[in-house]
Design a protein that fits this description.
Blueprint (H helix, E strand, L loop, with lengths): L2 H10 L3 H6 L9 E6 L5 E2 L5 E7 L2 E5 L9 E6 L4 E2 L10 E5 L3 E7 H8 L5 H21 L5 H12 L1 E2 L4 E3 L6 H8 L3 H13 L3 E3 L5 E4 L3
Antiparallel strand pairs: 1-8, 2-7, 3-6, 3-8, 4-5, 4-7, 9-10, 10-12, 11-12
Helix pairs in contact: 6-7
Length: 217
């Protein structure tokens, strides 16, 4: 395996960025831990902050000013994913919403770039972020080759935590609103498919309110 392949694996492991953040270069007073909950939003228009997801999921949503039903959820960001400031990427019409409770590390973008630029993996991290954005876009586009049921099942496998060979738990807060925005359909259509999945026992809610998905085949 050559250097570039090894380097890509290291970046993919999501440990390099976190190890840099945890280094002595970043003093505690430069990092802020924040908790956001369902209904909160992060809008990167004039903000000069960077967020790293430590816990939970955030939906990356392209907004439609006049019709919320036309909002598009392009991706679901999870642990160690980064929300960059508008210094790096212009997402003026993008908002980030937590599916439920999410814990983030917040860093001033100017401080972050000044420190990170001194590390040899800085360029790799930025390139990997761009590549990940392209993968999100490709994954989002690829789903439309399938019918709605298949799209929803693919999403469940993508976000689910596997607890056995065929069983997954789904993130809290992954409701018809976000599924519809990701699949490009109405909530009525999503609720119809979810009802069918419940009737076939492929989707069940535990006593603790956690959705369990059972994959068949």
């Amino acid at each position: 395996m050559d250097y570039l392949a090894i380097n890509k694996l290291l970046i993919r492991d999501k440990t390099i960025l976190q190890s840099i953040i945890n280094s002595n270069d970043f003093q505690d007073d430069l990092l802020e831990t924040i908790v956001i909950r369902k209904g909160d939003r992060i809008i990167q228009d004039k903000l000069q902050d960077i967020y790293i997801i430590e816990e939970g999921y955030l939906a990356k949503i392209f907004t439609h000013n006049k019709n919320m039903e036309k909002n598009i959820c392009q991706a679901f960001l999870g642990v160690a994913d980064v929300i960059w400031s508008n210094q790096f990427i212009n997402d003026s019409k993008v908002i980030y919403e937590p599916l439920n409770r999410a814990v983030l590390t917040k860093i001033d973008a100017n401080v972050f770039f000044n420190i990170l630029a001194t590390h040899p993996f800085f360029t790799d991290i930025l390139i990997e972020t761009l590549n990940r954005n392209e993968e999100f876009a490709e994954l989002y586009a690829r789903q439309f080759q399938h019918d709605l049921l298949e799209r929803i099942l693919m999403l469940f496998e993508q976000l689910g935590t596997q607890i056995s060979q065929q069983n997954f738990t789904l993130p809290k807060g992954l409701d018809a609103h976000y599924i519809a925005a990701y699949c490009g359909v109405s909530r009525v259509s999503v609720n119809r498919v979810l009802r069918e999945l419940r009737e076939s026992k492929m989707l069940e809610k535990t006593s603790k309110g956690i959705l369990k998905f059972r994959k068949i085949g």
